[in-house]
Amino acid sequence: MSSVYDFDPITGNIPATKVEITVSCRNLLDKDTFSKSDPSESFGRTEVIDNTLNPDFVRKYILDYFFEEKQNLRFDFPTYFLLFFQHFLLHCLQDFLGQMFCTLGEIVGSPASRLEKPLGGIPGKKCGNVILTAEELSNCRDSATMQFCANKLDKKDFFGKSDPFMVFYRSNEDGTFTICHKTEVVKNTLNPVWQPFTIPVRALCNGDYDRTIKVEVYDWDRDGSHDFIGDFTTSYRELARGQSQFNVYEVSRSSHSRNPSQSTSLHYMNPYQLNAYAMALKAVGEIIQDYDSDKMFPALGFGAKLPPDGRVSHEFPLNGNMENPYCNGIEGILEAYHQSLKTVQLYGPTNFAPIVNHVARYAAAVQDGSQYFVLLIITDGVISDMAQTKEAIVNAAKLPMSIIIVGVGQAEFDAMVELDGDDIRISSRGKLAERDIVQFVPFRDYMDRTGNHVLSMARLAKDVLAEIPDQFISYMKSRGIKPNPAPPPYTPPGHTHHHTQI
User: Fold this and answer.
1) In sequence order, which ranges of 383-466 are alpha helices (DSSP H)?
2) Looking at the record, which segments are called Disordered (predicted)?
3) What global pTM score does this model have?
4) Angstrom distance (rounded) from CA 444 to CA 463
């Protein structure tokens, strides 16, 4: 916000808000015969990205934004390619992939300040789309200098070692991620030491020290199909602690891509027994479904690429029906879960906030005490949007809903314990949750050593549902909602019930 002291008495202008524009493209026209296009664009100028039709440009644009002015923008996307003949460079050509016009107001005024428009300029051709996102810049002027090294990275190349590089992303309000830095490639090593780099703090987290920062590690390939090695999440607050045990991270594949057909996957469909996800679902669901009159349950997945276009979703129906995500009973949910594993590609990041907010929208519409919503989340413990999830839970605590989280696998579940809020009530932006609505249990604590899964599931359900009645009553009491009067005693058909007055 501008203060009274920012006013310029000579021009009469108040300095504008500064916004940062991020540029991405999807499904660009493939103009190169033997390789993918190498797009750049000339608004300023981005870096050239080799061999991709779906570039995410690291370079950002900082613009002054005036609400009251029309600010026209034009984006041109050339592609550069080199022609070689008999090992001699003949010449360099610049071809054209298309252009797009918009105003800065269109970007800022779009939902979540994210505008997607088609590229035009080549008659009769679909040239792909441009995605522009805007974020108001904080007034943080700090810079951070960092250096990273890695030990014993996964070997990706059949011959030789890997050629690793790192990609840094900052998280956005809507749970998505924006690329903000790429390191150089260190050739032929599993123990790289990358060069120190300096980056503005607002590029990393826009001045919010607790905002999630995601870091992915890749093995560089000449053809642009870089192999994913693994990822981890952190925050600027953690990074600012410097070189210490706080800044040693396990580079894990689990949050990015998981193959349910492999026996090591937590989603593995063993023909002889339920996997941990299905067992947790069945254990809790078979008890809680008795309190639902029609036994129809919406079942949603999060963290997967969906057919046909491979977009990543954190809020997709397991049964594949966007219009009607309801499944018939727990058996219907299990069937939809197994079918979805065959059609979607499990993929990171793992964002919780969209699912919590999805249920919260339903709960917000029915606050008269006639309905109460229970969200069951089954997770491997990886969470990419901790700050957004805390915010979602604090908001949901005012609504008729509870959240059950069952952690599967052998991961550390520190983040889930924090969300549970038993020891320290969860808060977001200094605001405490009105009541405790989250119950977390790790599935591994309930596995019976004798292999008696029926007993395991019964114990899990008992503990995970133990807090629901109190959470339900605490909502009703806080809203002054009293139970309905007891119905009259049941009278079998053909009988009259006599009251005897004493």
Assistant:
1) 386-396, 414-420, 453-465
2) 482-502
3) 0.52
4) 13
